[in-house]
Design goal:
Elements lengths: L11 E5 L4 H13 L4 E6 L27 E4 L5 H5 L8 E4 L11 H22 L2 E7 L20 H19 L5 E6 L1 E3 L12 H10 L5 E3 L6 E2 L1 E3 H11 L6 E5 L5 E2 H11 L7 E3 L15 H7 L7 H14 L7
Parallel strand pairs: 1-2, 1-4, 2-3, 4-5, 5-6, 6-11, 7-10, 8-13
Antiparallel strand pairs: 9-12
Length: 334
């Protein structure tokens, strides 16, 4: 589906983190809809390196790019020599998705160096190329403030959320100094859909519960999951937001969610309905203190500035996702 009247044919497009979840979906969107565009994926890809919490340091996976015919550069946004490879190409659009996105990484130094220090480089590249920059901010910038979450009322509570908050401030200063350069940050809420599987433990509740059910098990939920609500958004709507943001009337940061929070219990029930089974649910105590019980994106600015209109309800998104959930069942994660 083509989301804007802007044609990306004959344009050169950089997607950092292009082997990851959102990045790879963007890569295929451009490939399928704009065959005459030049697409460059930049990703460090998966290694065996892990953080102290046991999670992988990179979720980029070659299997997310099977069928992709554009250019691929294996590089790390922390490495100046790798970044220098990008200076060989002048880009029209830069979609900056690469980051440490694990909210439970508490090593502040590595999070800030990766997410913030490299951002200055991409802003300078955007300026030199006279490009449009769309970058991934995050709903994690809001912390646990009451819903609905509105731009300008951020209160990050972990290093990842703060790093994205800092990026938003840096972008705002850059835009003030360079008003003719388009720079847009998108605060993604709870994204789910195809090509998230290789995020492993940090993948969405949708695929994790889906695979539990396919194993013949009752989906495991926190006690009171009917009262734990999140703004779940299907990947196609996230791609839509990235594309439409290129036509935003104003620079700034914008929420990307549905504005319609749903419960964890809803996910379990919808999945079992789609998979034609009824195992009930298994409940266990929530081990986290200060757990966020409710998120809801205020998307009024996104609607106003670039006509963002979420197309998928949770039921519709899961229904479209089911074939991929089945395809990825028991696929090795390595």
């Amino acid at each position: 589906m083509v989301y804007t009247e802007t044609s990306f044919n004959k344009k050169t497009i950089l997607i950092t983190g292009g082997a990851g979840f959102i990045g790879s979906n963007l890569a295929f969107y451009f490939q399928e809809n704009y065959p005459n565009s030049k697409i460059v994926v930049f990703d460090c890809f998966r290694s065996e390196a892990k953080f102290s919490n046991g999670n992988l340091q990179s979720f980029g996976h070659y299997k997310n790019l099977i069928g992709f015919t554009g250019d691929i550069i294996c590089g790390n946004i922390n490495n100046p020599d790798d970044l220098a490879l990008l200076n060989q190409t002048k880009f029209d659009y830069i979609f900056h998705q690469a980051a440490i996105s694990d909210t439970r990484v508490y090593d502040q130094e590595i999070v800030m160096k990766t997410n913030v220090n490299s951002f200055y480089w991409f802003l300078e590249k955007t300026k030199n190329d006279r490009a449009t920059l769309i970058y991934a901010s995050s709903a994690a910038t809001y912390g646990s403030i009451p819903s609905p979450q509105k731009i300008g009322f951020e209160n990050p509570e972990n290093p990842y959320g703060y790093s994205k908050y800092a990026m938003d401030q840096i972008a705002a200063k850059f835009s003030k100094e360079n008003p003719d350069i388009k720079v847009i940050g998108l605060k993604f809420f709870n994204v789910y859909g195809p090509r998230e599987y290789f995020k492993n433990k940090t993948s969405s509740m949708v695929i994790q519960l889906g695979h539990q059910i396919l194993n013949g098990l009752a989906p495991r939920l926190f006690e009171g999951s009917d009262r734990i609500l999140r703004d779940f958004i299907f990947i196609d709507d996230v791609v839509q937001a990235n594309i439409k943001a290129c036509e935003s009337k104003n620079n700034g940061v914008y929420n990307v969610g549905t504005g319609k929070p749903r419960s964890f219990q809803d996910i379990a029930d919808i999945l079992q309905n789609e998979l034609a089974c009824d195992y009930g649910s298994e409940y266990f105590p929530n081990p986290y203190s200060g757990y966020q019980m409710h998120t809801q994106a205020d998307i009024s600015l996104s609607e106003k500035n670039f006509n963002f209109k979420p197309a998928f309800s949770l039921e519709e998104g899961i229904k479209k996702y089911i074939p991929n959930i089945k395809d990825m069942f028991n696929v090795p994660l390595d």
